[in-house]
Structures are given as structure tokens and as C-alpha cells.
Design a protein that fits this description.
The chain is built from 9 helices and 10 strands. By secondary structure, the chain is an alpha+beta fold. It has 2 domains: 119 residues, Sandwich (Immunoglobulin-like); 140 residues, Four Helix Bundle (Hemerythrin (Met), subunit A) (Up-down Bundle), CATH 1.20.120. The strands form 3 sheets. The chain has a 4-stranded antiparallel β-sheet, covered by helices on one side. A hairpin with a 2-residue loop joins strand 5 and strand 6. The longest helix is centred in the middle third of the chain and has 23 residues. The radius of gyration is 30 Å and the shape is elongated.
Length: 330
């Protein structure tokens, strides 16, 4: 927390109304118009008497905002503030929802709410940038039809003579060789696939050009999406980060998996879609998040992967599984 931010918190706290018995909540943001990847401060200032106060957690700001850090300033026994350092990943205007402040007092506990805070999306496209402008209209030209008719007649004649030859040829019985049954395919573990794909990514210090960073983020994000598709059985490669998070919630996935998935894919999407230029430090950060994803998924998804292997073995006759077959038919 730098000196300017600390001074701003002190100033916003001391400019509150005169002390009284009623609790008051004030909310401030350092910017109301943001581009993808921008950092900004969200400040909650509380004025009142209490024994203890519980501020909102890191998962209360929505899918388009990540919490980078938070720091608390208690100016006096009746004035308290908390500064959240947030990073914006949205591609449209959003509203930060009301945050609940839980207070414990001598006579009773109470809950206060902050105001709604609108955040406006600011496009990263510069004026006059033609790369993303609409194409010019396509003009249609008349085409000669007779070559297509001639080609059709030639193909029809060739098909007719082939049919006559095929019907009049001398048929000889062909011996059908006996073939040995193919061995059942091995079960491919999605976690081992993910670990192998992450291991094959280039080292961060070798990334030099803009194309190197773009391909690195694309490959990392797609590896996570392929794992989710294999384990949770929905088309994650064709879905946005928000759609993936919603589908994970519908599949009753672990909150830890949902949280780390959002963090990894948000950072990958920022480079892939928002024309954001990362550096080696950010590439190292997203690689560490991917390793954290593997660490969490290796624990919370172990039973799902074991079940996938069981279904594979039953399908290919490696083991018997009457119960699972009856359950799926019903």
C-alpha cells in the first residue's frame, strides 16, 4: 500500500459526518471506467461503535473481478476502513454488488450493506484501428453456368458405365480372413494428460516476442479447458470463462476448482481477446496458477476420474459392471 493510497483512506475516513451512535458505511472506488486487466481500489469506510467487524471475503465481487490484495486501516475505535486492490477482467459494464459488513456489538449483532458500485467498460481498441472493423460488402458477379452442366453430364456418363461394368463383372467368392479381436484401448487419465500438456509448455524465460506470449497463454488456457471437458463432460473449449464457471456450478464442482479455474482462464482470456501484452513476470504468475489448479484438481476430482476409468473398463469388457449399466439405462 503506497503513501498516496494510505493518505486517501485517512482523508475519506476523517471527512465522514460527525461522530454519533449510528453506524455508517461509505464506499469509494479509485476509477469508474476500466479496460481489461486494469487495477483499481475499492474502499469500504465504516463509522460507528462495535466490538468486532467482519468484512466481505475475496469471492464476493463476481466473476469479472479478481482480488489482488486487501489491507485494513483502523484510525480509531469508531472508524475503520478496508482497501481492496482489484483487477478488472470484464468486457462489458458491470455493477459491484452490495457487500455485507457483519458487526458484533454488546447488545446485539447487526449486518450493514454497502451501495451498488457501477463499473464502466472502456474498450482497448484505438480510434481508427481497422483490424477489427467490419468488412466491406461482398459484391456478387454473374457466373457462367454451362461448365457446371458439362461437368455434371460427364460425371453422370461415367457413373452409368461404371454401374454397367459393376453389374456384369464375374463375381468370385472372396475369402474373409479371420481377424483376431483388437485389445481394448487403455484408459487415458485426464489428470496425467493435463500434467503432460503443462509440462510441454515452453519455459517462461524463453518467451521473447508478442507471438510467443500469445501462443503460451492460448496453449495453457486450452489445456485447462480440455481437462474440464474430459472430466466434467461439457464442451469447455467452445465456451467462455463465465459459461464454464456456470456449468461447473451446475455440475456441483468444488468451489476451489471454480475459483482457480476462473483465475487461470481470466488471465489467459485477457491476452487472447483483449490485446493485452504480458511480460515474463505475468507469464510466470499464470503458470503458478496452473500448477495450483493441478494441485487442487488432483484432490477434489480424484473420485470423478476413478469413476470415468470404471465406466471405460465396463464399456470395453475389462470388468463386469451390471449395476452401472442398469443405472445408465434407467
Amino acid at each position: 500500500m503506497n503513501f498516496k493510497l494510505f493518505s486517501a483512506v485517512l482523508l475519506s475516513t476523517f471527512l465522514l459526518t460527525l461522530p454519533g451512535t449510528a453506524q455508517q458505511i461509505h464506499t469509494y472506488v479509485s476509477a469508474d471506467s476500466l479496460q481489461v486487466g486494469d487495477l483499481f481500489d475499492y474502499i469500504i469506510v465504516f463509522n460507528g461503535t462495535y466490538e468486532s467487524v467482519e468484512y466481505p471475503g475475496e469471492d464476493n465481487f463476481g466473476d469479472d473481478i479478481d482480488v489482488v490484495s486487501r489491507q485494513r486501516f483502523q484510525v480509531s475505535s469508531t472508524r475503520d476502513s478496508l482497501v481492496y486492490r482489484l483487477q478488472f477482467f470484464g468486457n462489458d459494464d458491470i455493477v459491484i454488488p452490495r457487500q455485507e459488513i457483519n458487526l458484533q456489538m454488546t447488545d446485539a449483532d447487526t449486518t450493514l450493506q454497502t451501495n451498488l458500485v457501477p463499473i464502466f467498460f472502456k474498450s482497448t481498441l484505438a480510434e481508427g484501428d481497422d483490424e477489427f472493423r467490419p468488412f466491406k460488402p461482398i459484391f456478387e458477379f454473374t457466373r457462367a453456368w454451362w461448365p457446371y452442366l458439362l461437368l455434371f453430364l460427364l460425371l453422370a456418363a461415367a457413373a452409368y458405365y461404371y454401374y454397367r461394368w459393376y453389374m456384369n463383372r464375374d463375381l468370385e467368392p472372396a475369402e474373409i480372413p479371420e481377424s483376431e479381436p483388437l485389445p481394448p484401448p487403455d484408459f487415458i487419465n485426464p489428470m496425467e494428460q493435463l500434467q503432460q500438456e503443462i509440462k510441454q509448455l515452453p519455459k517462461v524465460h524463453t518467451l521473447k516476442t508478442e507471438e510467443d506470449f500469445d501462443q503460451y497463454y492460448i496453449d495453457l488456457g486450452d489445456a485447462i479447458r480440455r481437462y474440464i471437458k474430459r472430466v466434467y463432460k461439457f464442451p469447455a473449449l467452445e465456451m467462455t470463462t463465465t459459461e464454464i464457471n456456470n456449468s461447473l456450478r451446475e455440475e456441483l464442482a468444488s468451489p476451489k476448482i471454480i475459483s482457480i479455474t476462473r483465475k487461470v482462464l481470466n488471465e489467459a482470456d485477457m491476452v487472447k481477446f483483449a490485446n493485452f501484452q504480458p511480460g515474463n513476470q505475468m507469464a510466470e504468475s499464470v503458470f503458478n496458477k496452473a500448477k495450483k489448479f493441478i494441485e487442487i484438481a488432483n484432490v477434489v476430482d480424484s473420485s470423478k476420474i476413478q469413476y470415468l476409468k470404471y465406466k471405460h473398463d465396463v464399456k470395453h469388457g475389462i470388468i463386469k459392471g451390471n449395476k452401472i449399466e442398469e443405472t445408465e439405462k434407467n
